[in-house]
Amino acid sequence: MVGAVTPKRWDSSSTLARPMAVASCRISSRRAWDPADGWPKHFGPELHGKTLGVVGFDRIGRLVAGYAQAFGMRVLAHDPYMPDDAVSAAGAEPAALDALLGRADVVALHLPPTGKPLLTAARLAAMKPGAVLVNAARGDLVDDTALAEGLHSGQLSAAALDAFAIEPLPEDHPLRTAPRVTLTSHMAACTPEANRTTGLVIAEDVLRVLAGQAPHHPAS
After folding, report:
1. Which residues contact 169 (CB under 8 A, 6 or more apart)?
2. Whether 217 is catalytic
3. Which of 20, 106, 108, 175 is the most exposed place for a label (fewest CB within 10 A)?
4. Secondary structure of residue 83 in the 3-state scheme
5. 128: DSSP letter
6. pLDDT per position as a tens digit, 137-150
7. Looking at 167, 176, 196, 217, which residue is catalytic?
8. Catalytic annotation on 138?
């Protein structure tokens, strides 16, 4: 399942390259394409040279960091359960959460549920101006209303979200009308391969417990 979720989260990080998707839609859609526009160009930033902030540096976080480094991004990582030397050994720069938020061009969340927003209104406001937020982890990690406000104000340039505090997302939710946001229905792991892997992992751990051994993947 990690293999399914990680590319989804990396695709979301590429929201920085959204003008390419806009251009494709305008050319391929008859209703969106206006010949009077000529052959328009849509400018957007590159990933190379940007900084990715990974919050939660376990398996998925480390895989995402590897993708980012392949694109020439610098990687900051915050994980309260991982020693700084382990973060450094994985090729990332350890950073306190607030420092990471102030420096990262893209912030990607890879954490279990916290029960209350980790990215509060104050922390969202303290993010680097024009940053992109990616959350394909858990919806309660982010103050949704404050995030929508940050997108409307331009404090954040974009967001890509696959998880929400309330699912399905209510029709009147402010994120539905926020600008520059990509919303998907908690489908990061929706692949046949991920479903098969999930079943195998569960079955293997059940057999381990029945044999008196500790499971590899205990519930957290």
Report:
1. 175, 176, 183
2. no
3. 20
4. coil
5. P
6. 999 999 999 999 99
7. 167
8. yes
Q: Which of 18, 62, 110, 138 is catalytic?
A: 138
Q: What is the C-alpha separation between 155 and 174, in angstroms, rounded?
A: 16
Query: Is 57 within 8 Å of 78 (Cβ atoms)?
Result: yes
CB proximity list for 176: less than 8 A, separation 6 or greater: 169, 183
| pLDDT per position as a tens digit, 45-102 | 889 999 999 999 999 999 999 999 999 999 999 999 999 999 999 999 999 999 999 9
Task: Say how many residues make up the chain.
Answer: 220
- Find the catalytic residue in 74, 173, 186, 208: 186
44: left (phi over 0), alpha (psi -120 to 50) or beta: beta
pTM of the prediction? 0.82
At residue 150, the 3 state secondary structure works out as: helix
